[in-house]
Structure formats: structure tokens, C-alpha cells
């Protein structure tokens, strides 16, 4: 049976050092929810509080209507998959997978049946009699996942499960994990610092910094309308540029450092006033042209990198700012270093923040967005 997870005013500290000051979060039943952030932001600490491995200095944690603050970890009915797999090296694959079932003292026939079921589900049944030392990293992680799933937990917890795998295997295993989670529909909390991994597997993501949740939403929403500058620069690539917001005749404009003006129509009413702002422009959101007659931001190509489908251009602007631009590769030619170019802003996609970066001033920001 899957559960909801509700966290109210969570506090975690070590001595006088506060790791999580006051955190509130609701995770839906059957949801694949990811805690994402840089090292030291508190995401693993929060996961271990959910699991019962860390003490809780304040607040309340619930699995559905059941308060779990003082519940022994063994009684929380969780499955956990660790970064280092944590499978027993002296046990075969079968014995590793059936370990949790034996602890539940289930009948032998049921243990054998469930073990077979989840080894097949994870495509490791052909390795049933092998020791872990004879398995690849990906196969060992499949064993760990099968062991966590076969006890039919209410909650499945992942702590950086793919960080020890090579790049190709990480992509393969994140697909496996996502597909399995959707098929078994267990409420899942996944911790990672890899934003691409989080985007690939999650129904919703909470971006954390210094123990504080900065933005909760779907991958699409967080990428397209990040709540603040930190989220914008942490999720994907982003070019950060200083600008001014100018209101004239009831219309609102972005004014770059060298005076290029672009009208922007989706500024929230409370921010429609003259002020310094910070623009965040994804590399693919610039419109690039070599036409000198176009009204745009002047720049010079410093370098270009051809990557098949796309070409990445590294450009310095007249303002002295440096930006990265991604354009679909042309069949005819690539713009060479030293070429003077013009850039225009796609104002429907650009993000604009207050001068301190604390808030996105555009419409469409949705904190605590639900997955569609």
C-alpha cells in the first residue's frame, strides 16, 4: 500500500548548527518525488529523517495519517536503495533479494515466489546464484532495487543511487528505475545533485539550498519558470545578464546594458515599475543572426563547438558579458570565430528576476505545482 508523506515545520540541527530550519512538504501517493540540490543543502539529511535514520529536532512527519517521528525505522515499511548498493557480498543474488522477506518471517513458498517475481522484474533472474563480486555495477544496483521492492514497502527511498555508475549506465538505470516505479506505483523519494537525472525521472522536484526549499514543481515548470535566480542557474544552463525594466506609456521593456530594448508583456502587475533586474536566458532562447541591419544585441563569436544536432556558440557582447548560445546545426555552414553577430531576446521564454535574484517577476511561476 502506497502512502502520502506530509512534513510540517521540520527542524534538523547538530548542536547549534541548523541544517534544516523550517521545512514544509507534501508528497502525493504514488508520486516520484525528487529532492535536488548541491552538496550540503540538506536533501540527504531530510531523506534520512523520513527513513528514521536521523533524529528530528522539531516538526511532524506523517505517512498518510500516521505520525512517524518516534516510529522505529524497521516499522515504517520503507525500502531504501543506497549510493553504494549495500548488498551483502557473501550472499548470492537470490539470498540478497529474499533477505527482507525472511526478516518478515513469511512462509518459504511465498518467499520463493516473491523473490522470483522481483528478480524477473529487474531482469536479474539469470544471476540468481551469483555472488555480487561477479556482477557489474548496474546489475548490483538492480539487486538492491529488487530487494527494496520485494518487501512491498509503503515508501521507496533512493539516496544518490546512480552516482557510482558510469555515464551510459546511469542513463540506462534511471530509465529502469522510472519505469519500475510507475509500474509498482510506490510513493518514491529520490535524492540527487544531478539536475538532468532529476528532470528525467521525476513527477515533481523540490530544489533545495541551505536546508530551504526554493521551488517545488514539475520538471517543465521549474525549467521554464524558475522561482528565483538560484533555481534558474542550478537547473540547466543559463546566461545571466544585468538589465533594467522600463515602463513607458503603459508598455514594459527590457533594456540591456548597451541600450537594446525589447518589449516584454508578461511581467506581474506588482513589478511593473522602473527598476534594475537580472535576466536569465537559456542558451537555446537567443535568436541569432548575422544580419547587421537587425535591431539586436551586438556580439562577436569567440568559439563554436559542433555537437551534431546542435552547435554551441560562445560569444562576448559589447557590454563585456559572455554568453553561450545553442543553435540547430546548419547544413550549409557554421558561424566561425571572429564573426560579428546580432542577438535578439525571445521575451516569451526569457526569465526576469529582481535585482537581488530572490524572485521571478514574470507570470507563470508556479511553486508547489502538481504533476499533470
Itemize the secondary structure elements and their pairings.
Layout lengths: L4 E10 L2 E11 L4 E5 L6 H9 L6 E6 L2 E2 L10 E4 L11 H11 L4 H14 L15 H14 L4 E5 L7 H18 L2 E6 L2 H7 L2 E6 L2 E6 L1 H6 L4 H6 L4 E10 L2 E6 L4 E3 L11 E7 L4 E4 L7 E11 L2 E8 L4 E7 L11 E6 L5 E4 L18
Parallel strand pairs: 3-8, 3-9, 6-7, 7-8
Antiparallel strand pairs: 1-2, 1-4, 4-5, 9-10, 11-12, 11-14, 12-13, 14-20, 15-19, 16-17, 16-19, 17-18
Helix pairs in contact: 2-3, 2-4, 3-4, 4-5
CATH class of the largest domain: Alpha Beta
Sheet with most strands: 6 strands, mixed
Q: Give me the Rg, rounded.
A: 25 Å
CATH-defined superfamily of the largest domain: P-loop containing nucleotide triphosphate hydrolases
Quick one: how many beta strands? 20
- Count of DSSP helices? 8
- Assess the beta-strand content as a share of residues: 25-35%
Query: For the residues shown, what is the average pLDDT?
Result: 93
Q: What share of the residues lie within helices?
A: 10-25%
Low-confidence stretches: none
Alpha-carbon distance between the two ends? 22 Å
What is the overall silhouette? globular
CATH fold category name of the largest domain: Rossmann fold
**Which second-level CATH architecture of the largest domain applies?**
3-Layer(aba) Sandwich
SSE string, helix = H, strand = E? EEEHEEEHHHEHEHEEHHEEEEEEEEEE
Task: Walk across the major sheet and give the strand order.
Answer: 6-7-8-3-9-10
Count up the domains: 2
Derived from helix and strand composition plus strand pairing, the structural class reads: alpha+beta
GO molecular function: ABC-type transporter activity; ATP binding; ATP hydrolysis activity
Organism: Flintibacter hominis
Protein name: ABC transporter ATP-binding protein
Pfam family, one: ABC_tran
Amino acid at each position: 500500500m502506497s502512502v502520502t508523506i506530509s512534513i510540517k515545520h521540520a527542524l534538523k540541527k547538530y548542536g547549534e548548527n541548523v541544517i534544516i530550519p523550517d521545512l514544509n512538504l507534501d508528497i502525493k501517493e504514488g508520486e516520484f518525488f525528487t529532492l535536488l540540490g548541491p552538496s550540503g543543502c540538506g536533501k540527504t539529511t531530510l531523506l534520512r529523517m523520513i527513513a528514521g535514520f536521523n533524529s528530528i529536532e522539531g516538526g511532524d512527519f506523517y505517512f498518510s495519517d500516521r505520525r512517524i517521528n518516534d516510529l522505529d525505522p524497521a516499522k515504517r515499511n520503507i525500502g531504501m536503495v543506497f549510493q553504494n548498493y549495500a548488498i551483502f557480498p557473501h550472499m548470492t543474488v537470490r539470498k540478497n533479494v529474499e533477505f527482507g522477506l525472511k526478516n518478515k518471517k513469511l512462509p518459504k513458498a511465498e518467499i520463493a515466489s516473491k523473490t522470483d517475481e522481483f528478480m524477473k522484474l529487474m531482469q536479474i533472474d539469470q544471476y540468481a546464484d551469483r555472488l555480487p563480486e561477479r556482477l557489474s555495477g548496474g546489475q548490483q544496483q538492480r539487486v538492491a532495487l529488487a530487494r527494496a521492492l520485494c518487501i512491498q514497502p509503503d515508501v521507496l527511498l533512493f539516496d544518490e543511487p546512480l552516482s557510482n555508475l558510469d555515464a551510459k549506465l546511469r542513463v540506462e538505470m534511471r530509465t529502469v528505475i522510472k519505469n519500475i516505479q510507475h509500474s509498482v506505483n510506490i510513493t518514491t523519494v529520490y535524492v540527487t545533485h544531478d539536475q538532468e537525472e532529476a528532470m528525467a525521472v521525476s513527477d515533481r522536484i523540490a530544489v533545495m539550498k541551505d536546508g530551504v526549499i526554493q521551488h517545488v514543481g514539475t520538471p517543465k515548470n521549474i525549467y521554464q519558470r524558475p522561482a528565483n535566480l538560484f533555481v534558474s542557474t542550478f537547473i540547466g544552463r543559463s546566461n545571466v545578464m544585468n538589465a533594467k525594466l522600463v515602463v513607458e506609456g503603459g508598455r514594459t521593456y527590457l533594456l540591456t546594458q548597451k541600450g537594446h530594448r525589447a518589449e516584454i508583456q508578461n511581467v506581474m502587475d506588482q513589478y511593473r515599475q522602473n527598476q534594475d533586474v537580472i535576466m536569465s536566458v537559456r542558451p537555446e532562447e537567443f535568436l541569432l543572426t548575422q544580419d547587421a541591419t537587425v535591431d539586436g544585441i551586438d556580439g562577436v563569436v569567440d568559439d563554436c563547438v559542433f555537437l551534431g544536432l546542435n552547435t554551441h556558440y560562445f560569444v562576448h557582447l559589447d557590454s563585456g558579458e559572455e554568453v553561450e548560445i545553442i543553435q540547430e546545426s546548419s547544413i550549409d555552414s557554421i558561424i566561425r570565430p571572429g564573426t560579428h553577430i546580432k542577438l535578439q531576446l525571445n521575451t516569451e521564454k526569457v526569465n526576469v528576476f529582481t535585482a537581488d535574484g530572490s524572485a521571478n517577476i514574470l507570470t507563470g511561476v508556479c511553486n508547489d505545482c502538481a504533476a499533470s
